[in-house]
Design brief:
This protein is α/β, with parallel strands linked by helices. It has helices at residues 10-20, 29-40, 48-60, 72-75, 80-85, 92-103, 108-124, 151-165, 178-193, 238-241, 246-249, 268-278, 317-328, 342-345, 380-384, 411-414, and strands at 68-70, 137-144, 169-173, 195-196, 206-207, 224-225, 260-264, 279-280, 283-284, 290-294, 331-338, 367-370, 386-388, 394-397. It has an 8-stranded mixed beta sheet. Helix 6 (92-103) packs antiparallel against helix 8 (151-165) and helix 7 crosses helix 8.
Length: 415
Amino acid sequence: MKKNNLSLTEKENNEIQFVIDRLPPDPSDKQIKDKLEDLRKFDENLNVEKLFNFIRRRVTTKFSEPLSLIKKSVKENAWVEEAKREGKIEFKRWKILKKELKDSGFPEDGIEKLDLHTDQLLDCLYNPLNSTNEDKFDRRGLVTGQVQSGKTTAYLALASKAFDAGYKCLIVLTGLLESLRVQTNSEADRLITGLDTSTPDIQNYVKIGVGNHPEVKEKYNLAKSITLSQYGYDYRGDPLKRIKGLYESLVPDESEKDPFIIITKKNTKILDNIIEHISKDGETNNNAPVLIIDDESDLASIDTSKDRIEAEEDPTAINKKIRQLLNKLDRKAYVAYSATPYANMLIPTVPSENTNDFGPDLYPSDFLWTLPIPENYLGPGKMFGITANEDGEIESKQSFFPGIITIDDTDEIYH
């Protein structure tokens, strides 16, 4: 069984809040430690180092503002704030997830920015609350963020809110490696389902993460995970025995049905399994709202065939399967995530008359988003010390890493 080392006990949470309430704005490390030492006088078992790290992240880490570019027709149909105001969405899953993030030491400013960002991003997805089963929708967008800056948490938070809004299924395309799939499934265990699926003992899953919240009374009242966070449990083999098929699960009229998640690799056989199980006896049950997250979306998902700008006859394998999957679903939102989205932005938008079997390409036609960046994030800008202003002019050349030396003797040549 996995042990979640990120969470705090209720007692530790209370101690952290006690200290934070008595700190000045922008406290120094010494001020935090002094308050913890004062508290240790009343509790000799207080873990000062652990609580210090949590407090420091909460009170000192700030996040940048996200940037966005949204299609006019999408922006004009924003719906989340109105739905919240009218009580149509309560975001119960998000409130539980928010507490788990706080207990894990996620910075307060980061949680606030994530809350706002996911509301705005959900606005870009179609509103399933005001649509009937006959309504078709197809929203496609791109979210970009820095390497290792919290993209997984961001899209799982979006999925949590999407479930509260009425989406029935989350499919995450993780990449090509089983290790990455297992890692992502493990994080979904903690933040979405609340059950540790790393053990083969399906009947005795242990609650973790959001599953430990007092409001979570049943094993599956948050979401079901079809795939497991253990090697070899992708959407093939055993998982196929544990579900009657997506045909029976994608039933939009049965609101009491738990939403479910599939965390899978970009593998043609596995994608074929999903496509096959959406249908039954030649009939497709495709009316339930589905959210598809394409993680590392510039990897394998892009059609790199030679004649892709011309009328498409044979896209590359993974690209074709993803498009066939989307084409099978009548009510879907596809959101691509990438730290290097250049290829996604260069997907040709030339209409093709020969795409009936696999649908249009994956160009993010409805919205573009950048994720907020924590100020303590150590990326290429800080490592190499080169930052630019809005006009592309170099503003700073001060490197975080002392081993990097900036050479300026070429400036006159290139300016």
